[in-house]
Amino acid sequence: MSGLIPRRRGSLAWCVTALLPYLLLSPAAAAPQPVRGGAAGTSTLKWRPCEDPAQQGFECATLDVPLDYDRPAGDAIHLAVIRRRATDPSRRIGSLFFNPGGPGGAGTAALPAWYERYFPTGLRERFDIVSWDPRGVGRSTAVRCFSDAVEAMAWWARQPAGFPVGAKERQAWYAGRAELANGCRQRASKLLPHVSTPDSARDLDRLREAVGDRQLNYWGISYGTFLGAVYANLFPDKVRGLLLDGNVHPRGYADGAMNGEPRLTTSLRMGSDLGSAATLGQFLELCGRAPASRCAFSAGSPRATRTKLATLMERLRRRPVGEWTYARTVDTLRSSLYFVTPGWTDAAEMLQELWQGRGPAMPAPPSSRTYPGFEQEAAIVCSESPNPRVLNRYAELDTFSAARAGDLGRRWVWDYEWCGQWPATAAHRYTGPWNRPTANPVLVVNPTYDPATSYQAAEAMTRALADARLLTLHGYGHTALVNPSTCVNQHAVHYFTSGALPPVGASCRQDTLPFAPAKPTGGIATGGGGLADAHHVP
Question: What's the pTM?
């Protein structure tokens, strides 16, 4: 899933995993606040200019919420919140909340990074754009299983790069995750049962109240779509506009008993490995059709390019190129598929360098002052989404997923091995129902070739919700937001400003196609009609 998480790390997967090499690290900033005794305080937000230079032009605030909503007068935690005011105050509608996925994506880092580049002007004019670090994450009361960033990075350096290959690396992987679980048990035991999605959905409703909106406007990507679906079913009368982009299969994520032994990991139930395989197939097809001047790894035809990649992977399994092992290469390739620009071009250049026996430059490690938060995604997903507890099962699933999805399938299996030894279960899970009628319909958007949240998952999300419309993006990469389409953005602006849905069966094209010689326009592809034909809701 990994939503696009603005941290450099090997994510569990969905929103844009380690936020790839293309986003900033989570800010070191102030230390997170611990769980504290006493009830949650004020329900208002006292906005002030953010102090971090990376957040220039934004306002920051904090909101106290209950640690456990079953005990609202009990212990409290705090949420770090950020906003950019509407640029046309005279036409302001309200607030639009944004969640960057993950689980574990820090909105206080993602929103400043993406505001100018990705959010449509029509929304920036009419809405305060608001985000937050969900409970357990970033600058909010956060799960921290190491004493400091130095200890965390030293632990990470001892782990096999990408995922384990062979019995020796698997044992090191298991031991590393056991060490992490023990640290979490010691340092975060009070918080761990209370970082689930329904807890965050209740926080989101508190945030809606705090900004003074009668109903919620929300754009969630990747895991943020699951959060949006849970909110829609817990607070159906509070939905003004929900845009779910890059969709998690709600039942694939949530179904099953936490004390059972599921046959598949979360990622395999959702078909993330199959989505990655299909997207990689398109990468090789389009690269093979392009000249080497536009795709460095092209071998002159799709078939020859596919053979070239298979040969390279086999070579790397036998002999790494410097620090570039088979597993590191697979991990980086998978992450690169999330962003068409610049990810696909960068991936082709990386593969070509390895083909020529040169190891691409390794990224600089994060600052030792920046807490990396490796465990924060695991804290959410492992507490509420069933995964195997029998560790040998992951080696079996490695073989299973590789057979159905190729090399990238292996990476998806090991994303969730953290959960095999996780020390806590959520006090509150949400497993349905998914079809409670909402006050207004939901807009579901998905690329047809999404390497983390497949188009089939978007179809499942649309079917599950009581009143949802699917807008298809004929394109590539993880989510429409960060793989922009002028057409999708026009529909998003119209939806949030007037309540208008796209026509049934509508679809869009991406603005920038992979390895293309020229930039096409992002018009309506199929489905009839433009925005003037959209269906208006009451």
Answer: 0.92
